[in-house]
Design goal:
By secondary structure, the protein is of the alpha+beta class. The chain has one domain: paralog of FGE (formylglycine-generating enzyme) (Alpha-Beta Complex). The protein contains 5 helices and 14 strands. About 45% of the residues are buried. The N terminus is likely disordered.
Length: about 325
C-alpha cells in the first residue's frame, strides 16, 4: 500500500460526544494479567511478555455501517477517503492519487506471486465507506456489516463522538483471548471440526480463489460467528481492527501495566518517508488465508497508514 502514497491527517473533525451514546452494546471486562504476543508465528509478534490491563468495556461487535452512518448524519463528518489531496502539498504525485479514494482488494484472474501485493491491491478513486469497492458499489442491504474504508483518523473521530476511544493493543488482545492463557493453537483456527466455521476468513488459494466455504467472500454481518468466552464477536477475521497504538515491528522485552504503546516519533522511524507513523491493526480479516497471512490470531498485528482506508479494515471501540 505504501507505493500508492499515504493519506495523512488532513483535518481533525470537530465532533462532540454529547448525546452520542450510539447503539453499540458493550461488554465490561475486569482486566487482568496475561501473556501478550507470541514467539510461534511472525517476528513482529515477539517477544511474549506479561502484561496487565485495568478494567474497561469493549463493544461486542465491530462498528457497523448503520452505526457509522448515524455518526456521519449527526456530525457531517467527511472521511479521509472522501477528501481530495492538494497537489501543492504532494508535488509530483499522479493526478489519480490526488483524487478522493481508497484501497480496494481486486483478485487477480490467475494466481500471482505472494510477495507482490500490487497484483491484488488497487487505489480506486471514489472508493469510500458508502462505496467500498468504488463508484457503483454500495452498502445497501449491509447495515449490519462492519464499516470499512475508514482510516485510523476516522475511527478516532467516531470513537470520540460515541463517548469512547480506540482500544490499546493490549486491551484488544486481552479481550480477543477471552481469558485463555495458552498459545493460540487449535482454538485460534477459524475452522473447528465439530463446531464448523468460527470466523470469516479466506478459503481456497489466495489471492485468486476464494470458495467461500464459510458462507462469505467479503465482509459478513457482525456476530455471524460464535462469540468468544467474553461474549465478543469477530475478534478473528471479518475485518482487521484499528487500535490506538503506534506501530513498531515488535514488543519491548519488559513486563507492562496498561501499556499505551510506542510514541508516534518512534513509529515514524519504521515507515516510508511518504507515510510517516502508522497505527496497529489486529485480528486478521476475510482476506487471511492459510497460504498467506494466517493472522486470524489474538497476537497477530500489522501496520496501517493514518489517513488511508481499505475494504478489509474496520474497528471497534472501548469505554473506561
Amino acid at each position: 500500500m505504501a507505493q500508492v502514497g499515504s493519506r495523512f491527517f488532513l483535518a481533525l473533525a470537530l465532533v462532540t460526544s454529547a448525546g452520542a451514546a450510539g447503539a453499540a452494546e458493550f461488554v465490561a471486562l475486569d482486566g487482568g494479567t496475561f501473556l501478550m504476543g507470541s514467539d510461534e508465528h511472525y517476528a513482529e509478534e515477539r517477544p511474549p511478555r506479561s502484561v496487565t490491563v485495568g478494567p474497561f468495556a469493549i463493544s461486542r461487535t465491530e462498528v457497523t455501517n448503520a452505526e457509522f452512518r448515524a455518526f456521519v448524519e449527526a456530525t457531517g463528518y467527511v472521511t479521509t477517503a472522501e477528501r481530495d489531496l492538494d497537489s501543492a502539498t504532494r508535488p509530483g504525485w499522479p493526478e489519480e492519487l490526488l483524487q478522493a479514494g481508497s484501497m480496494v482488494f481486486v483478485p487477480p484472474v490467475e494466481a500471482s506471486a505472494l510477495n507482490d501485493p500490487s497484483t491484488w491491491w488497487q487505489y480506486v478513486a471514489g472508493a469510500n465507506w458508502q462505496q467500498p469497492t468504488g463508484p457503483g458499489s454500495s452498502i445497501e442491504g449491509k447495515a449490519d456489516h462492519p464499516v470499512v474504508q475508514v482510516s485510523p483518523e476516522d475511527a478516532e473521530a467516531y470513537a470520540a463522538w460515541a463517548g469512547g476511544r480506540l482500544p490499546t493493543e493490549a486491551e484488544w488482545e486481552f479481550a480477543a483471548r477471552g481469558g485463555r492463557t495458552d498459545a493460540a493453537g487449535a482454538w485460534g483456527q477459524p475452522y473447528d471440526p465439530i463446531a464448523g466455521w468460527q470466523a470469516n476468513t479466506w478459503q481456497g488459494v489466495f489471492p485468486a480463489e476464494d470458495d467461500a466455504a464459510d458462507g462469505y467472500n467479503d465482509t459478513a454481518p457482525v456476530a455471524s460467528f460464535s462469540e468468544n468466552a467474553y461474549g465478543l464477536h469477530d475478534m478473528r477475521g471479518n475485518v482487521w481492527e484499528i487500535v490506538s497504538d503506534w506501530w513498531v515491528p515488535g514488543h519491548p522485552e519488559i513486563e507492562q501495566v496498561d501499556p499505551e504503546g510506542p510514541t508516534e516519533l518512534l513509529s515514524a522511524r519504521f515507515s516510508h518517508p511518504d507515510i510517516g507513523a502508522r497505527r496497529v491493526v489486529k485480528g486478521g480479516s476475510w482476506l487471511c488465508a492459510p497460504n498467506f497471512c494466517a493472522r486470524y490470531r489474538p497476537s497477530a498485528r500489522q501496520p496501517h497508514e493514518m489517513g488511508l482506508g481499505s475494504n478489509h479494515i474496520g474497528f471497534r471501540i472501548v469505554r473506561d
